[in-house]
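Tip: read the tokens left to right.
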């Protein structure tokens, strides 16, 4: 989410950054939407101020026993009261239109991000060469796996359709070993806190990290029937969001809670929830325990970045708490809506896969340094596995929607005789923090500001399995286990091939 005040202050710079992303100038449109929002706010405030002034005049008229004047003033108050819901609705609608437009615009790239239209514009930073000789040729992972009977795509297709796999025996254990090795490395040597998060999340969490609304078609969603009590968190969130927009603030920019704001926010929240379900639920009148059988959408996480980053949503952290570093090993689910015809064989592009995620929450001045640190942590996984890889800086046309700057780590896969992405490490600045309202209180009275967020793969477990199988394969179809993984494999040093 972008800061409309920053856009107002320097619209030319904003448009230049969007141009680097391949977008047309948008500052004039956004400023016009903000002007409309301000106009709606002013109209509602002016009406409220007029009502307050009239109340005083009514008291004075009654004190002077001028009943005619008092009646005239009371009639105007009644008229203003009738108009108030419309003014409030116009204010909320204007804010919604602006917010939705801002939420649809990608993050601004950092100045040092290379300019380019697609992956051909990416720039190589460095390479790491394995201590072993690079294979000039070799079988692909699915050929190795299917030959041993330990990788079964046909069984997975019967269960779930295409882009799934069943791993068995030593290959299943090898994948588990990779994930455990990565977690132990990041928690034991790199200072990340292991988290076991939910993998079903609400709309707000997906919006916070920018998976929604733009990438809705790339996600998997599930539903459950709910009762009124299930709606309470959604109502509370809508109330908080509305209060952030209309409530007065103290000198630190924090919302000042008032009875009038709470009442307006509750009315807005009830209507917002009812609008979301497309029906009048009469929330204000219902028993909290009444079953109403409305489907409640929950999203399967496309990456643990979603729950890990949202751990700080709506929080104000102390600067001394930063940086926060989280890691998790979770299943991830992606519809791969735009991947038709690509990587249809094997495990490279699956609907379900395991990944170790890295997330950092930092103060703004530390985020660039943290980005380099996160990249080094991800590289350490491949170095300890002794895999050949290269680091690429993604260009403006290939980086992610929420990213300011992204490094991709690409591992050598001899079966394809090419490099394939195994990790992306991105710094997002305050882009996600604004969507989550995640802030920190700076030292020495410097006020409250938005944190910076970073995320990276540390690394994709399925792709690490592919890399190990293809780089450690032997002519007889067996796979040598990297020494660093052998303790996780009960001392096993090789997976036997079909010809051994």
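Filled-in amino acids:
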């Amino acid at each position: 989410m972008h800061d409309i005040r920053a856009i107002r202050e320097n619209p030319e710079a904003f448009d230049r950054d969007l141009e680097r992303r391949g977008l047309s100038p948008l500052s004039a449109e956004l400023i016009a939407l903000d002007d409309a929002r301000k106009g709606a706010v002013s109209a509602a405030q002016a009406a409220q101020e007029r009502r307050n002034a009239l109340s005083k005049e009514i008291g004075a008229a009654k004190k002077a026993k001028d009943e005619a004047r008092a009646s005239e003033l009371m009639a105007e108050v009644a008229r203003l009261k009738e108009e108030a819901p419309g003014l409030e609705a116009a204010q909320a609608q204007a804010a919604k239109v602006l917010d939705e437009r801002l939420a649809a615009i990608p993050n601004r790239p950092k100045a040092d991000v290379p300019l380019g239209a697609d992956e051909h514009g990416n720039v190589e930073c460095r390479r790491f060469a394995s201590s072993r000789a690079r294979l000039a040729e070799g079988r692909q992972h699915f050929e190795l796996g299917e030959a041993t009977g330990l990788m079964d795509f046909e069984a997975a297709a019967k269960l779930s359709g295409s882009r799934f796999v069943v791993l068995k025996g030593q290959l299943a254990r090898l994948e588990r070993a990779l994930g455990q090795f990565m977690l132990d490395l990041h928690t034991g040597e790199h200072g990340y806190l292991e988290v076991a998060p939910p993998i079903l999340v609400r709309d707000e969490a997906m919006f916070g990290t920018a998976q929604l609304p733009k990438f809705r078609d790339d996600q998997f969603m599930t539903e459950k029937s709910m009762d009124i009590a299930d709606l309470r968190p959604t109502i509370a969130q809508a109330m908080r969001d509305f209060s952030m927009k209309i409530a007065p603030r103290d000198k630190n920019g924090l919302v000042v809670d008032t009875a009038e704001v709470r009442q307006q926010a509750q009315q807005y929240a009830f209507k917002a929830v009812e609008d979301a379900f497309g029906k009048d639920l009469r929330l204000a009148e219902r028993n909290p325990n009444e079953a109403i059988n409305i489907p409640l959408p929950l999203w399967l996480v496309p990456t643990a970045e979603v729950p890990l980053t949202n751990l700080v949503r709506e929080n104000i952290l102390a600067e001394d708490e930063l940086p926060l570093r989280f890691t998790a090993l979770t299943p991830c689910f992606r519809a791969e809506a735009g991947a038709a015809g690509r990587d249809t064989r094997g495990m490279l592009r699956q609907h379900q896969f395991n990944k170790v995620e890295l997330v950092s929450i930092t103060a703004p001045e530390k985020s660039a340094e943290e980005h380099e640190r996160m990249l080094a942590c991800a590289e350490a996984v491949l170095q300890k596995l002794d895999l050949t890889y290269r680091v690429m800086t993604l260009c403006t046309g290939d980086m992610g929607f929420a990213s300011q700057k992204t490094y991709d780590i690409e591992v050598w896969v001899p079966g394809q005789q090419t490099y394939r992405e195994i990790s992306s490490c991105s710094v997002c600045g305050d882009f996600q923090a604004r969507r989550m309202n995640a802030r920190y209180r700076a030292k020495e009275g410097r006020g409250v500001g938005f944190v910076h967020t970073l995320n990276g793969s540390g690394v994709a477990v399925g792709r690490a399995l592919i890399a190990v199988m293809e780089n450690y394969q032997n002519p007889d179809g067996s796979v040598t286990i990297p020494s660093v993984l052998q303790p996780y494999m009960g001392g096993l040093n090789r997976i036997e091939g079909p010809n051994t």
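The chain has a mean pLDDT of 91. The chain has 14 helices and 18 strands.
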